[in-house]
Amino acid sequence: MAARRMTRTRTRTRSRARTGTVGLLAAAVAATAFAAPAQAQDRPAQAKAPRHTATQQAMDAIVASGIPGMLAEARDGQRVWKGTSGVGNLKTGKARGKNDRFRIASITKTFVATVLLQMEAEGKLDLDDTVEKHLPGVVSGNGHDGSKITVRQLLNHTSGVYEYLQVPEYHNKYLIGDGFLKHRYDYRSPQVAVDAAMSHRPDFAPGTAYAYSNTNYVLAGLIIEKVAGDSYENQVRERIIKPLGLKATTVPGNSSLMPKPSSRAYSVLFLDPATAKVHDATLQNASQSWADGDMISSAGDLNRFFRALLRGELLPAEQLRAMKTTTAHSDDGTSAYGLGLGRQTTSCGIELWGHSGGWIGSLSNALSTEDGSRQVAFNLNGDWPKAGVADPVEAEFCGSGVPKGGAKGFAPLAPLAHLTR
Predict the structure, then answer these.
(1) Which CATH class is domain 2-420?
(2) Where are the domains of the chain?
């Protein structure tokens, strides 16, 4: 029975609340076109890399459906292709930049999980340690009990800990409409998120089901800080960013700024995309998403990170196996979730590993083949994708991402959305 319950997944996003508001990654929404697809002169690499024609076409279709702009980078060994479509600034009409930096949202979770797995390899903690051991008294109240939850269960979202973004008081203050506009520059400590989660009962007993909860990775970040005696941000810099030379990757902390080069980020602030005003959400205090989704990076850096991770450059074999040990699976078996790392299988049978990320004004995905030989990463600077338009991952790996005759398309943004947001 326990195994059967484990396969029950619950659709949950960083952006959808039980209050009934429309999420950033709704499967089907109406949208108004803001920009035409990129013209040929905007993508000179296309002529040099015809194998990416389908990817470019998928990006153009997504932009034509109403998203301001999109970028992608694909890497195959030493060969790199970069593509853009649409605009990075709705006011000036400036094209989307191929080297733009953007908020990677929940892709941050793979970095966090990697740090904790490195710590386990160093003997500083064990995945089966209880949360209570490292954070005494933190996970308690309303049925939450840190002595019954393990570090592993935080990382694979089987802890049952309540999703703080679903708490109406939190959601309304920080995310939706006027709440976001009023508080977008506020510093928010991790404890605020934990307190919000603890104000509600857990979703289920630890280890009996799967439900994606950003609270899990707030707690994971706090465990990193407790074990290291150092900030989560600095541990990510010293252990991953610096060794890999990820020069476009930052852990912004208490900052609302975006490093250059970057485009503007646009959001409907969790309101109905068919009627909501589009807001420039570029500047927002990164502390409000912290270890569950605060990092900034580029497509190139994300490709380098996932290439290194899956080639065993960041983790010993034992920890990498643990990271790829999945506990939650989609009903059709095409997607699954491990420790901060998702798995999906394309329509042409290629198995990919990575993570997606959706946050206010930014939607991203980064995926790699298991052997680290090929990667693709992309970002949208608008958070209201229209369903059934195109799938750039299918386009890149299978050669066709623009649906025909009702074929399954780009709905929602990331193929792992039902497991990893």
Answers:
(1) alpha beta
(2) 2-420
